[in-house]
């Protein structure tokens, strides 16, 4: 018994020893504690990965996203103003989330849960998000920062986290992107996102688009 254990252990060491140094996925994926105050203010989207159909095509067309997270009169409710520039066009949306015990939740009209992961970048927010809509479940890993660009080492860490989650390698935004102005009109963000999630036929088209974009753009 003991001998078998040693052999397995050695084989394990050999197989990781030949490639890169071992990645400690447990540590990289362990949610961090974050206060609601630390969430507040403006965050620029830097890059990420998602298995949400259409997200990679959208990623290639996306010029920028920023969030402005604001407190409300309720201590566990935050309001998110989100503005994005997609193919040169700015649009905005606004939605409320609950934030408790370092976890963000949206329960209606779909279920969304976010926890925050370790990063070596002091003014970054690494988000691990799960979305459930009817029978479907999707995961995303997203990196936001207070700055418009971050160090290559910090991007590497995000890539390792994506690898640990067995997700496609993150698509990073062009750091010279143009962001949208503050005064973009906002619409109800959750309703828009929900109709996207419910477009079942749309999902197949979106998956196909994702593949095409990855083939032709990368
Ligand atoms: C996070 O907060 C929880 C509950 O407040 C606490 O039990 C835990 O030790 C904290 N973890 C870290 C890494 O600080
Ligand atoms: C968000 O919640 C606050 C506090 O309950 C409320 O005043 C505000 O109208 C809500 N905003 C949206 C967009 O639902
Ligand atoms: C947050 O943590 C507190 C104390 O541990 C617990 O009473 C509460 O139910 C938790 N809330 C959520 C939404 O998990
Ligand atoms: C993050 O920083 C710590 C401490 O400086 C370092 O040991 C670790 O290798 C860094 N992680 C990555 C993935 O760069």
3D structure, described in words:
This protein has 218 residues and is α+β, with helices and mostly antiparallel strands. It has one domain: Calycin beta-barrel core domain (Lipocalin, Beta Barrel). The protein is built from seven helices and ten strands. It has helices spanning 2-18, 25-28, 36-39, 55-61, 152-164, 189-198, 200-217; strands at residues 41-50, 62-71, 77-86, 89-100, 103-106, 111-117, 124-133, 136-145, 171-172, 186-188. The chain has an eight-stranded antiparallel β-barrel with strand order 1-2-3-4-5-6-7-8. Strand 6 and strand 7 (124-133) form a beta hairpin. The radius of gyration is 19 Å and the shape is globular. The mean pLDDT is 84. The structure holds 2-acetamido-2-deoxy-beta-D-glucopyranose (NAG) (4 copies). The site of one 2-acetamido-2-deoxy-beta-D-glucopyranose has 2 residues, from loops.
């Amino acid at each position: 018994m003991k001998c078998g254990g040693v052999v397995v252990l050695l084989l394990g060491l050999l197989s990781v020893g030949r490639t890169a140094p071992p990645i400690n996925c447990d540590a990289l994926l362990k949610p961090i504690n974050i206060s609601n105050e630390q969430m507040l203010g403006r965050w620029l989207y830097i890059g990420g990965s998602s298995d949400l159909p259409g997200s990679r095509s959208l990623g290639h067309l996306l010029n920028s996203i920023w969030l402005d997270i604001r407190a409300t009169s309720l201590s566990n409710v935050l309001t998110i103003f989100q503005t994005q520039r997609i193919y040169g066009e700015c649009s905005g949306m606004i939605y409320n989330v609950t934030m408790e015990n370092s976890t963000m939740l949206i329960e209606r009209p779909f279920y969304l849960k976010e926890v925050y992961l370790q990063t070596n970048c002091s003014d970054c927010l690494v988000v691990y998000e799960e979305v459930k809509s009817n029978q479907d479940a999707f995961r995303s890993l997203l990196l936001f920062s207070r700055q418009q660009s971050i160090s290559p080492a910090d991007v590497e860490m995000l890539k390792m986290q994506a690898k640990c989650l067995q997700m496609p390698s993150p698509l990073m935004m062009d750091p010279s992107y143009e962001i949208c102005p503050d005064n973009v009109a906002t619409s109800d963000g959750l309703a828009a996102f929900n109709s996207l999630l419910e477009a079942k036929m749309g999902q197949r088209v979106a998956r196909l688009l994702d593949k095409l974009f990855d083939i032709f753009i990368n």
